[in-house]
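Can you please make up a protein's amino acid sequence together with its fold in token form to help me picture the idea?
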Amino acid sequence: MKKALFSFAIAMAATALVACGGKSANNAEGEATTTEESAAATSDESPAMQLLNSVPFTPEGLQSMIKTEKDKPLTDLEYEALWLGYSKIDIDEKTLELKNTPEFKAIKEQFRDHKRPSNQDAIIEKLINSTSPQVKGMALLSYTSLFGVSSDNVTKVANVLKDEKNPFVLKKGIRTLMNELKKEEAAKFVLAQVKNENSQVRKEAAIAIGNPWSQGVPGVTEAAKELLYDKDDDVRGMMLHCVGKLYDDSFIPDLVKVLNDDSQPKMHGEAIRSLYTMWYDYPFHKHTSKAAYDATVNYLKKKPRTNNIPYWTSITETKTRAEKDYPAWKAKATYFKENEWVKLMTDIATDPNANWLGRGPAVEIIAKYGTKADVEKVKSIIQANNNDKYQSQMLSNIEKVLK
């Protein structure tokens, strides 16, 4: 518990992910605290809420509420009152995040500028049972850790979320458990959210499911397949974007199906990203997949090209590589021939019908995997084609690459 809370400063600064809780917790003396007692403790009559209500709910008011010097531990009352301040921040219903108001920033600033009280564990244990979704969700977030969530805390999180209905709290719960699906309780909770009526909750579930840590978990493949065909485009796009991280070739037909549908070009960018992850695996360069590579090449070769197809972001992925790991990966990825890749990028870079936002990066890729002569060849072809409406932009890009 202390280990997870220790990382809270990082979690708050990065709007980190987290969750935890239970039907009962411990107070400062280690005695059981029921949900009802915790709710009462965070009501308008609680000392911490009274302290919060004693000042205007403004950045200046919040600052005046904290009497502790900077870099010193907050008092228990100050610490709890800051947490309760989240109850006064509205939830953005579109994103299921707290609105980034001046007051929200002021609360984070006070947490950042002060150390935690020694009694922080007991306070958090109380707040995870708050009747305020904002307080409960944010308190759950404090259980994240760079080292993962302990088995005990995963169980606590799953228990406290078992009957949860509030979308904000559910989203924070998914975020907390997203790297823990190999633990049965976490998987049961996250996979159940695939059918949640709130699209933001399903979108968060897609991120957790399309995660390398979720490989091999029973039910993950079926859940990912369902989200790939979700009725909400944002959910579907997120699953298309993330599913490659499962490194499972069985998803390739689903991705190709999207790429063959010219009516949804923006989804092409998400689908192709997963294909690249499967066969190119930047920045790790560990996994390989000839089937994913072939699907990528087939899409990029499709003609006639248009401003939307291939979608411009589908061309940029190999512009960067991890030089340290690339040679070992290339030795395994025997399907990837640099000269053939340069030839394909040349075809795209010189195609006046292709989107110039993709043609420019194609030139950079040619320079990375080919030679200066290959870039000069592209330059000469474009110079000779006065019907290329992006001729000046492309030649400018080429000059930058040649320098």
Summary: Residues 379 and 395 are 7 Å apart (CA to CA). The chain is about 55% helix and 0% strand.
